[in-house]
Design a protein that fits this description.
heterodimer, A: alpha+beta, six-stranded mixed sheet, five-stranded antiparallel sheet, 9 helices, 20 strands, elongated, B: mainly alpha, MetI-like fold, 2 domains, about 80% helix, globular, binds adenosine-5'-triphosphate, binds magnesium ion
Chain lengths: ~400, ~300
């Protein structure tokens, strides 16, 4: 058990790709930190640098306070689970799990006991004599976990360990991984590109884009106070609706295309920095779950033509068209389940989409013009130039640099 | 002389492999396929002809080794006298042993050297790696004949002529480049994650090489073994030059001496050729299963 600290870590591959830039991150003792971001953003690279499989170009990695930049993987006391599991095909399940113990010169009986206990914890007891090729994907995944657990390392490193599983098993294993991590109390760095996985598993979540760490916070904070447009669009499912709008000269309302959303005194007070944008453009973000069917007389309401309904059982996703332009999101790929249609994200003034997540009992029909109430207190505002969220600090100051697009 | 050795050992070996593959794939549906597909009929006939061409020398050797000189010339009758003649003319047992020792020694060196080098080329990264690799691949193009005389001088300078070590070293050097190439290709096919998982499991590169890479390389090692065995076992030139004492001779050298004697007995020579071809065939049959998967490795999966 130990902390892991990354201090201004940079990785430049020999071909000149700067995969990771000045990432600083601290994983507390026993903490489950999830590293999330779109494909190619450098997640694996970060993990491999912590594991010692990739040289660190600049900065420092410390495990338990010790600088490990030049320490080989075998001396770092870490255990890694790979995306494709990387089980040793010529060994049985028991041998796979026990392999890491071979170096320790433990008595045979003790190794066997540890392997058996680990297998029991993971429900693998009846497969111990099988070869990996004879196992299902979920079972292989467990063996890979077992191989990591049995050694009782200081740190677990996991690179998208669930991405090869089907949806149902993934949800199941997600809970299992967190449960095991909690039970063993071992620090974990968990990489995924799936924001749902990140949000449900992480004590804290670090969002990476283009090799730059955007924000590292508890899931709830990430959801409520995304630091910039990218994080806002990436976290949450379906993805946040983001439009280019403008604040009225008085600053009491925001215009979206031809429509206006009133901003109450309370909303404005929570965002003092918004005052500086009077009469200027802002990017407005509204989460689908903060839009509901409007009751007559609601202050902040949007009119839209209902184009598509998706029934999810307990809820209903309503896709409606709106005449406000979409805001551009850097690193375009949004999190999983983002149902904002691609195509018209060029910021043109053609009518944009919106998604609302409403109660399944709501009476609404495709083709009708509906009125949607927006929970103004949960709206997000961003600077259209710096992409940074507008709250109380001066906009754009000391923020995280966005990578050049 | 050498020609005989080649046709006896190398070619039928490869042909056997081809047939085994066809059998496994075609299986019981061969008849049906032949009826449906005229292309298959042509292919089948071609293969039958090739088979006859390949197997004829064998039949010729077996039949004529069972005849006396006169029976051979007349083309009829059978006798085992040529076999007893062979055993009295040649120390067959000790010559087979010499061949085996030299083969085993060279192959051991080649396996160790080529698997270690192949692993390094495939999985370790260091400066000028490609240059070294190209150098080794390039050395495959050097013919034995061009270096054997200087090699002889070198070995005689260090007093190794007539020592088993001399041909062992020369065969190892000759076989190493191709074996290294083969092992490199094989190890490149192993996923990096496997190596990295073992590194994380607490092993250094030596441990990873020995406990993971070598254990998984069985097909490639078998391929190297068979190919080198056939080559070394059949070689005449190197053994003839470097082992001149009669007691040191290998079986091919023994047969060479026999055939260059004044009274050449064709049936005895046939018997000797059969004996010398058998080990190569046996080794081939043992490793055949691996050999096929080794030569086609990386093609699928
Ligand atoms: N060995 C390498 N040499 C050169 N560039 C590399 C190497 N490995 C990765 N990269 C580049 O570094 C960047 C980050 O790669 P990385 O594998 O860390 O992404 P990732 O976030 O893990 O993506 P994914 O979700 O697809 O696994 C990519 O642009 C990739 O092309
Ligand atoms: Mg990755």
């Amino acid at each position: 058990m130990a902390t892991v600290e990354l201090d201004e870590v940079t990785k430049v591959y020999p071909n000149g790709v700067e995969a990771v830039q000045n990432v600083s991150l601290e994983i507390g003792d026993g903490e489950l930190m999830v590293l999330v971001g779109p494909s190619g953003c450098g997640k694996t690279t970060v993990l491999r640098m912590v594991a010692g499989l990739e040289e660190i170009s600049d900065g420092e990695v410390r495990i338990g306070g010790r600088v490990v930049n030049d320490v080989s993987p075998k001396d770092r006391d870490i255990a890694m689970v790979f995306q494709n599991y990387a089980l040793y095909p010529h060994m049985t399940v028991a041998q796979n799990i026990g392999f890491g113990l071979k170096m320790r010169r433990l008595p045979r009986a003790e190794v066997e006991l540890k392997v058996r206990n680990t297998a029991k914890m993971l429900g693998l007891s009846q497969w111990l004599e099988r070869k990996p090729a004879q196992l299902s994907g979920g079972q292989r995944q467990r063996v890979a976990m077992g191989r990591a657990i049995v050694r009782e390392p200081k740190v677990f490193l996991m690179d998208e360990p669930l991405s090869n599983l089907d949806a149902k098993l993934r949800v199941q294993m997600r809970a299992e991984v967190s449960r095991i991590q909690r039970r063993l109390g071992v620090s974990m760095l968990y990489v995924t590109h799936d924001q749902t996985e990140a949000m449900t598993m992480g004590d804290r979540v670090a969002v990476l884009l283009g090799g730059v760490l955007q924000q590292c916070a508890a899931p709830q904070e990430l959801y409520e106070r995304p630091i910039n447009i990218f994080v806002a669009a990436f976290i949450g499912s379906p993805a946040m609706n983001l439009y280019e709008g403008a604040l009225t000269p008085e600053g009491t309302a925001v215009s979206l295309g031809s429509q206006r959303l009133e901003l109450s005194e309370e909303v404005r007070r929570a965002r003092p920095a918004l005052a500086a944008y009077r009469g200027k453009g802002v990017v407005v973000g509204i989460r689908p779950e903060h839009i509901s069917a409007a009751a007559p007389g609601d202050a902040a309401a949007l009119q839209g033509d209902v184009e598509l309904l998706e029934a999810l059982g307990s809820e209903l996703l309503v896709h409606f068209s709106l005449d406000a332009p979409f805001a551009e999101v850097l690193g375009a790929a949004t999190g999983s389940g983002g149902s904002q249609p691609e195509g018209d994200d060029s910021g043109s003034t053609a009518s944009a989409w919106g998604v609302a997540r409403v109660d399944s009992g709501t009476r609404i029909r495709v083709g009708e013009r509906a009125s949607f109430a927006v929970r103004a207190g949960s709206m997000h505002f961003f600077d259209p130039h710096t992409s940074m969220a507008i709250w109380d600090e001066t906009p754009g100051s000391g923020g995280v640099p966005m990578p050049a697009s | 002389m050498t020609l005989q050795g080649e046709s006896a050992a190398t070619r039928p070996g490869i042909e056997l492999g081809g047939r085994a593959g066809a059998r496994r794939r075609g299986g019981p549906t061969l008849g049906r396929r032949l009826r449906r597909d005229p292309g298959a009929v042509i292919m089948f006939l071609v293969l039958v002809v090739v088979c006859i061409v390949m197997l004829y020398p064998f039949a010729f050797m077996i039949i004529n080794s069972l005849r006396t000189e006169t029976q051979y010339l007349n083309g009829s009758g059978f006798s085992t006298s040529s076999w007893s003649g062979l055993f009295s003319a040649l120390p067959v047992g000790s010559e087979l042993l010499n061949s085996t020792l030299i083969c085993a020694g060279s192959i051991a060196i080649i396996l160790i050297g080529s698997s270690a080098a192949g692993f390094a080329f495939a999985k370790l990264h260091y400066r000028r790696q490609n240059v070294v690799f190209l150098g080794i691949i390039g050395s495959m193009m050097i013919p034995v004949q061009s270096i054997i005389i200087p090699e002889y001088v070198n070995l005689s300078n260090v007093g190794l002529v007539n020592n088993y070590l001399a041909p062992i070293l020369v065969y190892s050097a000759l076989g190493m480049p191709f074996a290294t190439f083969l092992m490199t290709v094989f190890f490149r096919g192993l996923p990096d994650e496997l190596i990295e998982a073992a590194l994380c499991d607490g092993f250094g590169y030596v441990g990873v090489f020995w406990r993971i890479a070598v254990r998984m390389a069985a097909p490639a090692l078998a391929t190297v073994t068979v190919l080198q065995f056939i080559q070394i076992w059949d070689d005449l030139l190197v053994a003839l030059l470097l082992l001149q004492e009669p007691a040191n001779r290998t079986i091919t050298v023994g047969l060479g001496v026999l055939s260059s004697g004044r009274a050449v007995s064709i049936p005895a020579l046939m018997a000797g050729s059969l004996i010398s071809a058998l080990p190569a065939i046996i080794v081939y049959l043992i490793f055949q299963r691996y050999l096929i998967s080794g030569l086609t490795m990386g093609v699928s999966r």
